[in-house]
Amino acid sequence: MTLRSFRARILLSSVFTALLALLLVWASTGLVVSSTRGLGSGPDGELAPALLQACKAAPEQWRRVRVGHVEVGFVASDAAVNDVPEGLRSMAVGDRRRDPENPRFRWWHMAETGPCAWAALAGGPPPRIHDATRIGGALGVFLAILGAGFGSYWLTVRPLLGRIEGIRSAATRLGKDDYEPAADDVNDALSAIGNVLDGSHTRIVEDRVELLARHQALENHLAEIAHDLRTPLGSLLLALGEVDAAHPGSPATARAIGDAAYTTALVDNLHQAARLRHGLDPSLGECDLLDVVRRVELRFRALGAAKGVDVAASVPEGHLWVGCETALLERAVGNLVHNATIHGGEHVAVLVDVSSDCFVVTVLDDGAGLTHDAIADLEAKTFRSDPARRRSSGLGLAITHEIVRRLGWTLQLDPGPEGGLRVRISGRFLRT
After folding, report:
1. How many CB atoms lie within 10 A of CB 204?
2. What is the pTM of this model?
3. pLDDT digit string (tens) for 69-99?
């Protein structure tokens, strides 16, 4: 049940209670009205002599008059004898009888003839006073109960709902920066729940700070290891290249060169990933795209030769300056060429096309290639950044995609025109 529904039910309950009280009061106000009859002369009492004298003094004014607030007097003259109920006209002088048609009235036969010969007194307040008493009493009790209900809501229920709302809000913000303490000074179960939430929030924040510190230390350590390994791995690749030149065609040397190249790429990707994780902006710097592609070609030509793969690049003459750090751009292009050399066919081509203020770097191989569905699955595993994405081992492709994304460029994967895989990086350059 929501808090809004809870409030509505409490208000409806108060209104229902007030309406029920109104009905009960309406049914019981007859007792109140009956008790007012004792305020004046009852029907069984003697007719006050002063009233009789007043009637004889001005009989024309005493036809259907009200005497007091709770009793109605009626005096009949000779001409108004027809107003006397027919069953009472045979009464002797001095008799008193109750009206058979309206027991509320009692009649007196005061004299044979003349003014004030007949008189009638009501045994209670007039109908208007009776109705007013009933309505006023019921309305007063209704308003009193309604006021008591709203007063109880305002003084008791409303603060309780506010405390419940505070606990709900604290529970939804548990562990967040905008958390507000849920405990208060009241010593009850709600305050105990608030204390538990506050304690849980404190522990979550402390654990998060500790985990972030550990994660940061691990990333820094990883970046330092990756940086320290780059130099010996580079030397290892050069040494293996010299061994391969001295003893060409050795399968063991080819495998060693492939493993060393893979390890070098892995370490370099981890190093660049740590830099990107620390908030590095790849666009803070300039480099010559054509020069980067030429260096990537030279580096992977040796790896391709060891694996029997021809790696070649086609770039225009001159320079093409882009807004990117040199190491990151070389890593982005190198990852694509490395994947094509390892997983492609016998030929890998790197093409650079320039038109207007845009460029396109294409890495194409003649391997088995991937279907459109397989490419979509690879992109879902590698490019999506949400926590629910499926994981893959394509660290190099993920690093390339992250660098390209932060630069505002685009990365596109398609099946090659004649088999294999075609990967394109497109963006804008600064100048030539």
Report:
1. 14
2. 0.49
3. 445 555 655 656 777 788 888 888 888 888 7
